[in-house]
């Protein structure tokens, strides 16, 4: 152990979301920051959502590309985000994280069957660098009902973290929480937990140019997509003393930088991903246009897919899930991935006719169709109109918005405002985003793990589906 003041630098990333184009620059920037620290110890940590199945590299390799890049970059510990936990099966996660070269730390994520963390995860770890003992624990956002369907128990993060901090504090010199919970939760935790030196945050994509100091804890966040690297420097005067934060903030990443290991690895994984996604899944005898401002055959096909998969009498889906028309000819899994990249699942909700009518009326307005949506698994650009299957809608485009200028029919009978209907729709609506009245639905049943592109694949393989998609659902009233 060196005499005199001791320093420890902590570098952290979060919510990279498979932006492989930034992974080489991030690694190069990390190398430069490590070099600047000289012989002083440096820890590199990731706070989750490194993976995103919207990327060809991740989808085509089922996340192996991300693990390879993290190993080559040299992370010392990571936690998981909802994009790891919710978009891969237990078996896939086991395969992925069995190959990572550092600890995966999360204390509120357990196997339902055992009540214990999976074999590839630890509730906490203690790392030692130059005689400095660093305690690390982590937590991920508790999407309890979703995780239960995948065989996981997501515990209350605060209670789980409190227990781990109580165990770690007497044993370590520095205590760090890797939190994929979001900034409001991190701020609350800082005020309630004792002995924590820093909470490194993610999930809400917040960037804190300087750490927020709350109750002696540095609350941090480094944005998203690898655009920044978080950096903290702790120092103590002598061995046995207490560490204090002497520097903290976010370092912008120069996107022109290149790392000699990461750049070729990312290129190889892109090529491998593309090769896997070249599989032909269907052959279409016609072009299916897409109109995100109104009705179109490709939007209808998606609604058909959701209706059939959920077994509901009718379905509601937003056309913004689709990023372009479906071409005629050979359809590959890569094409469906490119056209419908969002890792979104379906669900069944019980919804009143009034709430359905409100959403459908909103769908006729530019305000809703052009609404920009972020998060909730959505990887499109705008919300888009509502596509339906199992409904017939008569509307008058001349009436003012919300003037009840539509008539909705189910099985030939007019929809009743007070009646409750079983509706097949999308899980993102249950978070009260987009067409918010759909979130008023009760008794939600979530259907995991299939994504919308998986349902499109099934629907394309069903005889007669293309012809059905061309049938008109939204009919303009004669005047």
What does this structure look like?
The chain has 479 residues and is an alpha/beta fold. It has 2 domains: 6-273, 4-Layer Sandwich (Purple Acid Phosphatase, chain A, domain 2); 280-476, 5'-nucleotidase,  domain 2 (Alpha-Beta Complex). 28% of the residues lie in helices and 26% in strands. The protein contains 15 helices and 24 strands. The strands form 6 sheets. Strands 5-6-8-9-11-10 form a 6-stranded mixed beta sheet, with helices on one face. It has a 5-stranded mixed beta sheet with strand order 3-2-1-12-13, covered by helices on one side. It starts with 5 loop residues before the first strand and ends with a strand.
* β-strand number: 24
What gyration radius follows from the Cα positions, in whole Å?
Answer: 25 Å
Q: What percent of residues adopt helix (DSSP H or I)?
A: 25-40%
At the fourth level of CATH, the homologous superfamily of the largest domain is: Metallo-dependent phosphatases
